[in-house]
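2.7 Reproducibility. Because tokenized structures are sensitive to small changes in the input, we list the exact sequence used for gibberellin 3beta-dioxygenase, including any N-terminal residues retained from the expression construct. No trimming or masking was applied before prediction.
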Amino acid sequence: MSTTTTLSEAYREHPLHPHHIIPIDFNSVCSLPESHKWPKSDDLYDNKISVPVIDLRDPRVAQLIGRACEKWGVFQLIYHGIPLNLLKDAESEARRLFSLPSRQKLKALRAPAGATGYGIARITPFFDKYMWHEGFTIMGTSIHDHAKQLWPHNHAKFCDVMETYQKKMNILADQLTQLIFKSLDISEEQAEEMNWVGSSSALQLNSYPSCPEPNRAVGLAPHTDTSLITILHENSIAGLQIFKQEVGWVSVKPVDGALVVNVGDLFHILSNARFPNVLHRVSVNQKRQRLSLAYFYNPPTDSTVVPIVKSGQVARYRPVTVKEFISLKAKSPEKALSCIKT
Ligand SMILES: C=C1C[C@]23C[C@H]1CC[C@H]2[C@@]12CCC[C@@](C)(C(=O)O1)[C@H]2[C@@H]3C(=O)O
Ligand SMILES: O=C(O)CCC(=O)C(=O)O
Ligand SMILES: [Fe+2]
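Resulting structure tokens (single pass, no recycling of outputs):
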């Protein structure tokens, strides 16, 4: 009998140091601590250029998405069919969580060898400074246990909303993947040959509290996502910036009700480097808290991602299982891709 690895098992194989997990109590600090003070930077490209906005109802949607993935690795999706009140409910449940007193949130702290719960970003150990950020990671069925730790008597609403949210995001992510396959001329038979039964995914709630010195703080340091694609809902506060080759850092302007979709490492590999795995980061705000919900969509953890090579081209990467790639990223986010270069 074959056994399957869950996504949280793949992450649990890479324990973090306890001091790389516990967020500071943002309410108790009135100036930016040295530990969170980054060198000044002023590298934002402030031109008229902006991320493509795509209507899912457009008859040419596959082509538009394909082109956006190729040129940008990111786009904003409108008329995506996810009800606005679900987005608002999920956002307000996330807000309710992060508004809890620090000591309450620490009851759901991610364990050092854990994958889920409250804590700072997994990439923290790879940077000298801490980020102005707190997160809550949901994978598999852990949500009930953590929600009970946070709200012993009224966790049902939180769990219901987050479960519905993940189900809807999964359907949308499947649909987007089909459209991207179509744009890459991958036939249904080829897609079936990949033999991806189901998917594995995670939901990350992000909070970037208001910050006394926003120019010296970093919400989330530059990174690429380990996913096939990531679907992001953000509140109305700007902060997300993406790096575009030959241009530089570009801000993503929040569009009410739109979802930000970005290409992760796994689609970069699968597309044989035709799609960039877009580098992105988050800045913080002096007055307002920023909230976001990121849905990471992956093939099953044990499945193998094989680059799709067009005739006349060569494979840029060797085949890799999702599990192995997660492990390479955990060792070094920057070197993971070069480890599988052909
Ligand atoms: C399913 C995922 C994807 C993770 C790890 C795990 C749970 C949390 C995700 C994030 C969220 C914040 C940025 C990131 C870079 C991080 O540090 O944690 C992401 C990471 C990845 O995309 O690699
Ligand atoms: O908060 C954001 O806009 C981006 C979050 C993000 O990049 C992530 O969770 O991986
Ligand atoms: Fe990200």
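The radius of gyration is 19 Å.
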